[in-house]
Amino acid sequence: MGEKIQDYRELLQKLGIEELNAMQQEAYQAIAERPEVVLLSPTGTGKTLAFLLPLLDRLEPELQAVQALILTPSRELALQIEQVLREMGSGFKVNAVYGGRSRYKDRQELQHPPAVLIGTPGRVADHFRRDPNLTAHIRTLVLDEFDKSLEVGFAEEMRAIIRALPALDKKVLTSATQKVDIPAFVGLQDPQTLTFQRQDQRLTLKTVVSPTRDKLETLGNLLGQLGQARGIIFCNFKDTIRFVSEYLQKKGIDHTAFYGGLEQIAREQALVQFRNGSHRLLLATDLAARGIDVPELDFIIHYQLPPRKEEFVHRNGRTARMHSEGIAYLLRHQEEYLPDFVEGASDLYLQESPPPPPTAWATLLLSGGRRDKISKGDVAGFLIKQGDLLADQVGLIELKQDCAFVAVPRQQARQLVNRLNNGRLKKKKVRVSLLP
Questions:
Q1: pTM
Q2: Which residues contact 400 (CB under 8 A, 6 or more apart)?
Q3: In this structure, is residue 356 part of a structural domain?
Q4: pLDDT at residue 6, rounded to an integer
Q5: Which of 14, 126, 290, 418 is the most exposed place for a label (fewest CB within 10 A)?
Q6: Are both 61 and 150 inside the same structural domain?
Q7: Same domain as 257, residue 188
Q8: What is the pLDDT of residues 16-55, one digit of tens each?
Q9: What range defines the domain where residue 210 resides?
Q10: Is 124 found in the same domain as 173?
């Protein structure tokens, strides 16, 4: 075990990780040695890295074919895994395919098959029907957050995909839920199940009572009291998100939204702006409760409580991740009763508070990306040399295939757009725009 982990020190360093945690080490060992593993571990504990390392170990560099398949319930999780693999710099080609993305782009990339294919079950099943040859050499299958894929209606697609894999000899299933039913079509014979409970989690629950049923003024006062802290406001429905968003806009409270009804590009941009600090607040449905890449949160707010305990636990898992502290606020009308699964919450009484100040960052969108052989260093150099920014004024940079996002000081953002738009970045003329 120690020898194989040592082989990946360089990959871990590229991710800024010194060593694997206890769960990742145990999962690595099991996945490397056993043909069937079920990994049950809470949100934020690092399951992605736990299965990626042994997966890479099984790939054959000389084989130009899809060798490993990772199925995810959401586009965001597929993109997140793709990003982690690219940042590891393993040398293996990787592609993500998902609904909402151009099939033409997919087909172009699959003409030169990736060693690792990541995708949502619907889009992957579609490609396998059109080109059965893609499945011939797939030996490793990962069903990441498999219970969520079943919950959102992908059972038939998953069944069809598994049937189409003649060379399959390793199956890995992951979930953030402790008690899950595995459907018979997965075909597990004698899996090793690894169950990890969250250790040292220090989650505080606070109930905030609202005198009005819409709870908007109470939410505004709570956000004013929280100031510059970063968090997610959970709603049960996208119509509620629109309703709450209108109120926050009137109050001048910066935020972005994330839910299933948004176009894919809007969902990606929302997460980018939340990660880089351009927005401190994310208004979201349970789509954001797990399977997305977001930074450590100071709090989460249940504007509406979910109907089931599982969603409540997953939401709360977005704060107090790993060994950190976190706080969850529960907004309720004074005549509204809390469900039985809410335990140990203490009351918080608010005073009227001014809105929190705007963030110091804004996000620029550049029209060049990895496909143009542009690196993060190239983007930083472009902003420093042509935009006259200091090195510490260049915030988080995220590279995509055909574009790049970068956080810059909000006060200088429009000036930078005027100065840099249609400028040349590594010999490519790029468009530069400011995200709202």
A1: 0.77
A2: 268, 369, 370
A3: no
A4: 43
A5: 418
A6: yes
A7: no
A8: 788 888 899 999 999 999 999 999 988 777 899 999 999 9
A9: 202-348
A10: yes
User: 303 and 215 in contact (C-beta within 8 Å)?
Assistant: yes
> SS3 letters for the chain?
CHHHHHHCHHHHHHCCCCCCCHHHHHHHHHHHHCCEEEEECCCCCCHHHHHHHHHHHCCCCCCCCCCEEEECCCHHHHHHHHHHHHHHCCCCCEEEECCCCCHHHHHHHHCCCCCEEEECHHHHHHHHHHCHHHHCCCCEEEECCHHHHHHCCCHHHHHHHHHCCCCCCEEEEEECCCCCCCCHHHCCCCCEEEECCCCCCEEEEEEEEECCCCCHHHHHHHHHHHCCCCEEEECCCHHHHHHHHHHHHHHCCCCEEECCCCCHHHHHHHHHHHHCCCCCEEEECHHHCCCCCCCCECEEEECCCCCCHHHHHHHHCCECCCCCEEEEEEEEECCCCCCCCCCCCEEECCCCCCCCCCCCEEEEEECCCHHHCCCHHHHHHHHHHCCCCCHHHCCCEEECCCCEEEEEEHHHHHHHHHHHCCEEECCEEECEEECC
Taking the C-alpha atoms of 376, 377, 378 and 384 in order, what is their torsion angle to the nearest 10 degrees? 110
pLDDT above 70 as % of the chain: 96
Residue 405, strand partner residues: 365, 398
Give backbone dihedrals phi and psi of 353, rounded to 5 degrees, phi first.
-130, 145
Residues constituting the chain: 436
